[in-house]
Structures are given as C-alpha cells and as structure tokens.
C-alpha cells in the first residue's frame, strides 16, 4: 500500500505548527498504525530529518498513552481500539490520512502529536481515590458482599484507560466521560460511599478549573471510547453531583 | 562469600517475618517528616511503595518516564493475582502457595522471601478491595477465583482480563491521594539516568526531563527502584516500548550486584510474529489455558496443507491432532507452568509442526470449551442438549463473558475470528526473574538503594508462576519495603536535607551529560532501532528458549562487537534540549547492549537447566530440564568496567522447609 | 448548593430544567392550538381563559418568559465557553462518525427558533398585550364575539408567514430530537426506561412540530 500522510508538525509548545505532507510506500496491511509511523520515522531519520513525535508505550491498547486524531476520528476509523491497535487493513491503497494531536485547551501540545494530559491526573488528585491507609489491616475482602451487577458495572467504568479520546472527540472538549467513569466506579461500590459527596464535588470542580468544556450529550465520547465506557456513567455522575450539591 | 549477606532472620520459617518486623528499627512519625525518599518507577511496586511511604509520613519524590504514573506497564497484566485466601476451600494455605512458588521457580528462589510473599498475599486482596478495586465476583457477591498454570488450587483473583490495570489504578489512586496531600511530588516524563552515591550511600539521582531535556539533580535519604524488567533486550517482547533496564543498569554500575540475568520468562501464549515491521508482541492471558486446548496436527501433510491454505484447522479430525501438552503432562495438561509450555511449543515447531507461514505457531482451541459450557447452560436453561449449534452458541456466550476482551484483541490484531477458528499462539519474552540483587530487606548491595518488584531478583527463582508478578509487586510496595526501609532510615533522622551541591552530584551529572553529548554528536549512519533489532535477533536466537555453549559464546562476542559499532555509528536526530525520543531510546539501547552481554555470560556460566534457563546440554532423556545441585545458588554479578569483566558472587540457597525434588508436572 | 449554578454540571442541570418546562409548555400550547382545528368555540373559550386568568397572566407568563430567556442566554453562554475549550480546531473532523447532526448543531437550531419566537411575539403576543394592557380591553370580544379564532386565521393567510412558521417548526423538531433525551440524561435519568423514553422522545420531537405545521397549513388552506 502507498499512502499520503498529512501530519501536524509542531516543534514545541510555544511554536506554531502546520500540517506537513509525507508519502509512505510498501505499507503492509498487517502493520499496526504506529508501526506504519515507525517506518516513516526510520525514513526521516535516514534522510536527516526529525522524526514525528508521538506518545505510545504498551502498544496493546491498555496504557492509554497513544493519542492521535486519525482522519477526523480519535484513534482512527476502527471502533473499540486505541490507535496502537488500529491496523493498516482499515485503509486502502492510495488513501490520504490526516494525523493530528488531540485538540483541547486543557491538553496543550508538547510537540507534534504529543499533548499534555496532566489535567486528567489533577482531576484524580482531587478525589479519584478511597481514603484507606495501606496498612493491610482492613477488614477481610469478603466481609462485604457486593451484588454482581454492581461489581461488574464498577469494573466496566474502571476500565477507562485515561487516553483522552473522549475529550478529543467531544465538540466541546468535555471531560465528563473520563471523570464520570471514576466517580461511577466508586459510587457503585460500598467502599466508595463514605467519601461520595466530597469526591464528586471536588473532581467536578477541578474538571471545570482545567478548562474542559461542558457536556451537551452528543454521545461522541461513548462512540469513540476505545474501552466502550458508557454514557450511563455521565448520567450517574450528574445524579451523584446533584445529590451531593443538595447535601453539601 | 561474606560479601553477600542476605540478612534472613533466624527462627522458624513461619515466624521469620513477624520476628523481623518486631526487631527492626522504626522511625517515629515526627522524624519521618524530615526524611526524603526517591521512588523511581510507578508500576505496582513503585506506585504502591510511593503511596505507602508517603502515608507513613516520608517526603516522597516519584519518577516515571510516561506522562502519568497510571501508564506503567503493570497495567498490561491480564490474568490475575494469587493470594492464599483459600476462599474456595480447596486446600490452599500460605505454605502451599509458598511451596508452589518455590517449586514453580525450579528451586532457585530464597525460601524466606517466598514465604513472606505468600504470607502477605492475603493482605493484598483485603487492601485492594478496600481501595475499590473491582475484582470479579460470583452471584453471591463474594470474590471469584480462577486457576492458573502450575498449581492445583484456584487461588487467582482477577478482574476479567484487566487485573493488572485494576490493581495499578488502585495503587495510582493511593498515590493520587498522597499527591493531593502534597506528600508525593510527582515527576512524570522524567527518566533516571544515574544514582548518586555519597559516602557509600545512595543519596539521590540524576534525571532527565524528557520534555525539556533538562538534566536535574534530586537528593534523598534513600532511593527505591521499581523500574521493572529488562525483557526489551530481546527487542520483540510483550513489554511496553519504553520498558528499559537503564535505571537498574546505572545502579549496577554504581555498585549494585545484578543477579541471575539469564532467568527470563518466555510466555507460551502470545500472538505470533507477523512480519519484519513488528514492533512488539501481544500476550494472550495464561488464563486462556484454563479453557483452551493446545495442539498441532499429528501429520506433516496436514501442516503443509494448512500453511498453503488448502486446509482449515477446523477440518482436521480429532484423532489427527496432537494435544502435545496433554500427551506429555497428563497431570497438569494444558496448565503446566509457562517455561514448560513454551519449550513444548518450541519443540513441536522445531520438529516442523508449526501452523503458520513462519512455522512458529501452535493452536489454542476453544471448541471443546464451547461445547462443555454450552451443554451445562442448555441443561440449566432446560434446552436441548443435543442441538449442537445451540450448545455451541450458549458456550460461546460463557467464553465471551470470561475472555471477551482477549478474543476481541486477538481478532483486531490477527483479523481472524477466534470463536470460529482456533487462535494461533507462540511464546514470547514476557518477564525477567533476574534483576538487582537484594537482601531480605530488599536493599541492594549499595546501602540506601532498594529494588522492588520485577526490578529485583528475589522471589521467582528461575521461573515465575502465572499471577505471581502482581502479587510480588504489591507485596514489596505495600507491605515489605515500607517496613524494612525504616530500619535503614532510623539512622538518618539527624542527617538533615541532602545537598545536591556536592562533588558526587557534580560527577554524576557530568557523567550523564557526557554520555548524552556523545550520543547526540555522534553523526553516525544508522538509527537506534537498527541496533536494537540486531541485538534482539542475537538474544532471541542465542539466548532464547534453548541455549548452548557455542551460541552463548558467539552471543557474547557478537554483542560486544555490536556495542562498539553502536557507539561509532548510531545516528540521533535533533538536539538534547528538547523532546527527543530517539535520544532517550539510544540511552536505553546502550544499556541493553551491556546487559545483553552479561545475560549471555550468566547463561554460559550456569551449566544446568532450571526454569526459564534451558541449556541443551543439560536435559533428561525426555527433554525435560536437568537441574544440578552444584548450581543451587544465586549468581550475583559485580560490575567491573565491562560486562566481560563482571565478577561473580554466589549466594547459596538453602532449602530447610521444602524438599528439593525433581520438578515434575507429569 | 452555590456550585449548582456555577459548575458545569449545575449549568447542564439548569439547562435541562428550563428545557423540561419549555417542553411542557409546548405541549400545552399545542393542545390549545389544535382545538382551533376541531372546535373554534372551545378554542376561543380556552384562549380567553388563558389570556385573562390572573394566575396565568401574572404568574405563569413571567415564569415562561424567564424560562425562554434563561434557556437562550444559558445556551449561548455555554456555547461560547465550549468554543473556548478548543482554541485550535481540527483540520479534519468527522463528527458524523460519532454523533448526530442535531446534537452538534443545537446552537443553530436554537438560534433559528429564537428568530422564530421573535416573529411569533410580534405576530401574536405584542398585539395581545397591547389590546389588553395598553388599550385596556380585557373583554376578548370583537364585534360582540370572541376575537381569538378569527385573529388566528387572519395571520395564516399570507403564504410567507406560513412558510416561515413551517421552517421554524422544522428547526424545533431538530432541536427536540436531541434536546428531549439530552435533558433526561442531564438530570441523571439513564436507566432501564431510557430506551423507551428515547422512542417517546422521537415521537414527541416529530409529532408536536408536525402538529403545529398541520395547524398552520390547515388554516391557510381552509380560509
């Protein structure tokens, strides 16, 4: 396969960036998207040019590091995958592919396709935890049975990998799906109840301060989420938030 | 051998840890505020240690090269975590977990450490549940268990195929709480490039800010390395692209002994290599072996027909299939430990029975599990148990619930539907049992320098059992290191802050900047990946699943030559004062090129087969590993300038509570 | 409690509450208007009641006006804020792959509805207020009969107005197709009833505007 790539190049956070065209040839359909970029980068290095910087690590869709907007979609055209799991068989010979970084004021570009997602970490610092000390002297793990449906729903919410595709896809750059996944995980478990009020208030406050937009329920986040985190979580967070606001 | 003091406490095995905790020095809460600890790496071990140390009151600085501590590669562990809870009432106990782990490690691990691990495993589960980790539960609301390779009980706790993720996010949440309180200062996108030793003690690190390229000095009263394993020396592995040996290797160069580098785990169930472009390999959880049966065709003609596409695996009759694990190991069958399963796959593929174009793949087949579960479901639901299509459909639903995400992952990568055709798998490098030598307190041979989790060598011997890595990482980080480090830090309560303006820091920083300058100004002709791939080929072909004297000797000289070529001819674009991934990679590959040689040297020296280390010269008539009594020790290597000059120190292993037997899974 | 109107979720909630109120109002408005098709007399009677009963005029009407104004202002405020959250836009953005046109263009459908409402006020509400409170004629009579039905029919004579109203209702339908369920999601109602509710939302979002269009066309063509 031969492809034309239109890639966002930006030297540093304070530099102006632009789309640059590259041609890649002999792409195998069995390659992953990032392996295709590896090939491009090896070419660029050989030519004495700077390779395209992009975030990636585990390359098996779980670390959440990779993050690019491919042909107008977060993580590209395939569903339920991160861009490292996207394979070139999703494209055709002769295609032109746009590759851009996540776009959000709260995710400033560091270089090329790499953005700063520490806003997500700061939201978690504000309340994404259960305050239990790590002495190991907690009660027995089976002391509180948890209804399977709730345990499963908590797990589904907890599978969020924090990649930021939800923010990138949302026309408002809203982080509601990400925040609601964490709020939901703990809201569904008895262990999370004690701090439920403060947690949701603090996390939402931090989310707002980071400059993420407001949710208008377009549902784009759910569709583009590589882990299929459900919009139900946002509804649950809304409930939790209203409950907490009335209480607190 | 007095130089290696493992500091194992006296007394009966079961009381050692309790006695030790009772006797060691503690730091009082007010004094903990005066003490700084650096934790490098934020995986299960580093993350849990940072959180716990901060909670105890120490000032913690945590470092990771990823953009967030949540992305450490522990997150990719799929299958589960072992704990001797005996919730299933199937005869499990602390002793049995200890026994299985020592036996699984082929009698090359330290008894006291492993017993402690088994002991604290129970606390881990309690701790994680309290933190909100959503483990799988049964309909009664209680925790569910599954069984893993090499054991006869169900003691593995899991969260579908994302157990590592859930546990890491638990540790990350504990860290977040401390970061929010200001007790942990987090340095993400930072890479440790040297340890600073002042008066013989580890007192800080030199780190590079990967975004700005700035070289930073950080001081502390103790340094903890939780930097994972070094499997990426093989280039292709299930490790993350960024996983590296650099922190551990720099520690080694500063005096920390490196133990058993040749003990590497090659995991049997990974997706086979598809071509030269391949950048990494993907694991399929070992838990799949609970329900999947491994086979290759019995006849060469079928193998050929499969390779040229004229025959489908589903068309091969039951009697024409060789379920080689069930045939060779009737007692454990498909659930033999990883090293055994991997070697058996290699044996079949070497004999010409591999089922893909490269000849390096075997089948993992769920057809009989579909029928078994389907029949059960049909019975429960009162449907027709003889309707094959229905039964298969019902069975597939059960399997989908258990492993849905793994099946989906397989389909995305291979573009074949594993519900309809068997998966193809092949072994791949997955974990390194070897690592920095530590004593019972998890301290390295450098005072004040600790190594935890996969970065150390301590608990898995020559082979790690499934679901034990998560257990060890969290045991070290939550429950062992935070106690034992106090014993050392008790002497530092009056030391005061460590200055970074000292000759030692100057020297270490100079050392780092010189290396970086050399790399960036090298103006060679070949990329970092070029050298990394070549190193990987040498490692895989000559230090892989089966090793022999000739290959290892060749590997040693080839790696040394490759290293020289690397330093002459590597080409790194860009500058050192910006985000430059090639530069970061170059530093890591430079260290792999040294470690690789020590690895081969260790493998050459170890004239026996044990666990993940299989020497072709030392095998039984049936092709099983042949252990030798005279090698019942830990090889700890001291750095002396070049890998070839490394000096061996032996820590003899004594087994007082377990009988060293032939490790049989037949 | 203070955060409820300054936070992102609080604003969403407020937006949803005003939407619920407007949707109920719309239903009520429709119910009265449809009477004009079947029974001019009942239409006149109900219109007179609504136009003169104190609670409607001095309690519900101000609330309604506040609701409309609030919904619009909040809508614009959120839009501006949301635009700020992405300073640089994508060179290529395939919104259709993950969301409906309606959901992405609420500001446009809403904006058009605003224009429509202004015209609607000029057509009906301002003359009504003028007659009742400036001129002071609270009788509701014209030549001894209720005037409401005939006034309504007069308005729908010019084809341009009918066309404009129809277009306004099309935008209303588009707005409701996303807005109806979005409001429920915003107040946290996402449960086993959600699928049923989604179906009902579609019926409402299409049914009500089509009904209004029918009324406009009916009066135009039967005059």
Notes on the structure:
The complex is a heterotrimer of chains A (248), B (666) and C (223). Chain A contains 8 helices and 7 strands. Chain A has helices spanning 33-46, 118-125, 148-158, 165-169, 176-187, 196-209, 220-224, 232-247; strands at 3-9, 18-24, 69-70, 73-74, 96-100, 109-111, 114-115. Chain A has 2 domains: 3-110, Ubiquitin-like (UB roll) (Roll), CATH 3.10.20; 117-247, Alpha-helical ferredoxin (Fumarate Reductase Iron-sulfur Protein, Chain B, domain 2), CATH 1.10.1060.10. Chain A starts with a strand and ends with a helix. Helix content of chain A is 34%, strand content 11%. With 248 residues, chain A is of the alpha+beta class. By secondary structure, chain B is an alpha+beta fold. In chain B, helix 11 crosses helix 12 (388-414). The model of chain B has no long low-confidence stretch (mean pLDDT 96). The longest helix of chain B is centred in the middle third of the chain and has 27 residues, at 388-414. Chain C has 9 helices and 2 strands; from the N terminus they run ααααααββααα. Chain C has one domain: 3 helical TM bundles of succinate and fumarate reductases, CATH 1.20.1300. The chains are: A alpha+beta (248), B alpha+beta (666), C mainly alpha (223). At the A-B interface, helix 1, helix 2 and helix 3 of A face helix 3, helix 5, helix 6, helix 12 and helix 13 of B.
């Amino acid at each position: 396969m031969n492809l034309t790539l239109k890639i966002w190049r930006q030297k540093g956070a304070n530099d102006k960036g632009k789309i640059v065209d590259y041609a890649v040839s002999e792409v195998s359909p069995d390659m992953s998207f990032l392996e295709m970029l590896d090939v491009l980068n090896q070419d660029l290095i050989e030519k004495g040019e700077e390779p395209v910087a992009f975030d990636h690590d585990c390359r098996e869709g779980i670390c959440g590091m990779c993050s690019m907007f491919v042909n107008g979609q977060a993580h590209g055209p395939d569903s339920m995958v991160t861009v490292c799991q996207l394979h070139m068989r999703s494209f055709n010979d002769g295609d032109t592919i746009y590759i851009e970084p996540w776009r959000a004021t709260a995710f400033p570009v560091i270089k090329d396709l790499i953005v700063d997602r520490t806003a997500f970490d700061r939201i978690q610092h504000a309340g994404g935890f259960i305050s239990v000390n790590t002495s190991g002297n907690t009660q027995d793990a089976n002391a509180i049975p948890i209804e399977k449906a709730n345990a499963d729903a908590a797990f589904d919410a907890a599978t969020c990998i924090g990649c930021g595709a939800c923010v990138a896809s949302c026309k408002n750059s809203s982080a509601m799906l990400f925040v609601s996944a964490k709020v939901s995980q703990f809201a569904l478990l008895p262990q999370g109840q004690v701090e439920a009020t403060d947690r949701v208030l603090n996390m939402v406050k931090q989310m707002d301060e980071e400059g993420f937009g407001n949710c208008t329920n377009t549902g784009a986040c759910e569709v583009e989420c590589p882990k299929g985190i459900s919009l139900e979580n946002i509804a649950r967070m809304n409930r939790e938030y209203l409950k907490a606001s009335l209480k607190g | 051998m007095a130089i290696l003091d493992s500091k194992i406490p006296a007394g009966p095995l079961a009381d050692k840890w309790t006695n030790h905790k009772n006797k060691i020095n503690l730091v009082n809460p007010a004094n903990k505020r005066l003490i700084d600890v650096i934790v490098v790496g934020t995986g299960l071990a580093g993350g849990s240690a940072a959180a716990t140390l901060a909670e105890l009151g120490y000032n913690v600085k945590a470092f990771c090269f990823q953009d967030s501590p949540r992305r450490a590669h522990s997150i990719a562990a799929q299958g589960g975590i072992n704990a001797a809870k005996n919730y299933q009432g199937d005869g499990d106990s602390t002793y049995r977990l200890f026994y299985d782990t020592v036996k699984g490690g082929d009698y090359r691990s330290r008894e006291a450490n492993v017993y402690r691990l088994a002991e604290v495993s129970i606390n881990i589960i309690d701790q994680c549940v309290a933190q909100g980790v959503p483990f799988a539960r049964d309909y009664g609301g209680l925790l569910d268990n599954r069984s893993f390779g090499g054991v006869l009980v169900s003691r593995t706790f899991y969260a579908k195929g994302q157990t590592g993720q859930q546990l890491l996010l638990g540790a990350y949440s504990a860290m977040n709480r401390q970061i929010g309180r200001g007790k942990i200062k987090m340095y993400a996108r930072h890479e440790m490039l040297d340890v600073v030793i002042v008066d013989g003690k580890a007192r800080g690190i030199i780190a590079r800010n990967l975004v700005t390229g700035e070289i930073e000095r950080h001081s502390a009263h103790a340094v903890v390395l939780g930097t994972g394993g070094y499997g990426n020396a093989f280039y292709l592995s299930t490790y993350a692209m960024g996983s590296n040996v650099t922190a551990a290797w720099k520690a080694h160069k500063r005096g920390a002994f490196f133990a058993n580098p040749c003990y590497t785990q090659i995991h049997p169930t990974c997706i086979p290599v598809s071509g030269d472009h391949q950048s990494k390999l993907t694991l399929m959880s070992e838990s799949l072996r609970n329900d999947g049966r491994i086979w290759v065709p019995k006849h060469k003609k079928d193998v050929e027909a499969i390779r040229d596409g004229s025959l489908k695996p589903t068309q091969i009759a039951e009697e024409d299939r060789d379920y080689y694990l069930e045939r060779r190991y009737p007692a454990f069958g498909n659930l033999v430990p990883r090293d055994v399963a991997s070697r058996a796959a290699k044996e079949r593929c070497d004999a010409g029975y591999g089922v893909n174009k490269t000849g390096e793949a075997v089948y993992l087949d769920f057809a009989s599990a579909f029928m078994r579960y389907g029949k059960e479901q049909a019975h429960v639901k009162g449907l027709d148990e003889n309707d094959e299509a229905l039964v298969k459909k019902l069975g597939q639903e059960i399997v989908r619930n258990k492993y849905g995400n793994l099946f989906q992952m397989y389909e995305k990568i291979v573009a074949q539907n594993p519900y309809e055709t068997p998966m193809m798998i092949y072994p791949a490098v997955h974990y390194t049992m070897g690592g920095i030598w530590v004593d019972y307190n998890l301290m390295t041979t450098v005072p004040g320098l600790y190594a935890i989790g996969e970065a150390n060598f301590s608990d898995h011997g020559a082979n790690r059992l499934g679901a034990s890595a998560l257990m060890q990482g969290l045991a070290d980080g939550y429950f062992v290191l935070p106690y034992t480090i106090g014993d050392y830090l008790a002497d530092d309560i009056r030391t005061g802050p460590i200055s970074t303006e000292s000759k030692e820091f100057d020297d270490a920083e100079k050392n780092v900047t010189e290396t970086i300058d050399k790399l960036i100004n090298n103006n060679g002709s070949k990329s970092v990946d070029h050298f990394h791939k070549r190193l990987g080929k040498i490692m895989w072909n000559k230090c892989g699943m089966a090793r022999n004297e000739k290959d290892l000797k060749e590997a040693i000289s080839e790696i040394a030559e490759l290293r020289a070529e690397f330093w002459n001819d590597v080409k790194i674009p860009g500058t050192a004062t910006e985000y430059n991934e090639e530069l970061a990679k170059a530093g890591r590959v430079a260290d792999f090129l040294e470690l690789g040689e020590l690895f081969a040297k260790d493998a050459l020296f170890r004239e026996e087969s044990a666990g993940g280390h299989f020497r072709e010269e030392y095998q039984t008539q049936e092709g099983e590993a042949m252990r030798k009594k005279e090698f019942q020790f830990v090889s700890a290597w001291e750095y002396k300038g070049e890998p070839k000059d490394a000096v061996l120190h032996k820590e003899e292993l004594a087994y007082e509570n377990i009988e060293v037997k032939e490790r049989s899974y037949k | 409690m203070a955060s409820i109107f300054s936070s992102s979720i609080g604003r969403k909630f407020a937006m949803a509450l005003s939407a619920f109120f407007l949707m109920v109002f719309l239903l009520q408005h429709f119910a009265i208007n449809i009477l004009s098709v079947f029974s001019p007399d009942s239409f006149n009677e109900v219109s007179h009641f609504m136009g003169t009963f104190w609670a409607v005029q001095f309690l519900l009407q101000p609330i309604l006006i506040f609701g409309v104004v609030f919904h619009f202002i909040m809508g614009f405020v959120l839009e501006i804020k949301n635009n700020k959250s992405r300073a640089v836009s994508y060179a290529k953005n395939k919104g259709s792959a993950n969301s409906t046109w309606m959901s992405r263009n609420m500001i446009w459908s809403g904006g058009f509805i605003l224009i429509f409402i202004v015209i609607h006020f000029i057509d009906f509400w301002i003359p009504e207020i003028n007659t009742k409170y400036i001129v002071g004629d609270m009788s509701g009579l014209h030549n001894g009969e209720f005037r409401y039905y005939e006034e309504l029919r007069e308005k729908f004579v010019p084809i341009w107005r009918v066309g404009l109203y129809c277009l306004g209702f099309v935008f209303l339908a588009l707005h409701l197709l996303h807005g109806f369920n979005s409001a429920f999601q915003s107040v946290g109602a996402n449960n086993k009833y959600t699928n049923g509710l989604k179906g009902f939302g579609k019926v409402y979002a299409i049914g009500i505007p089509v009904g209004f269009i029918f009324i406009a066309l009916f009066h135009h063509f039967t005059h």
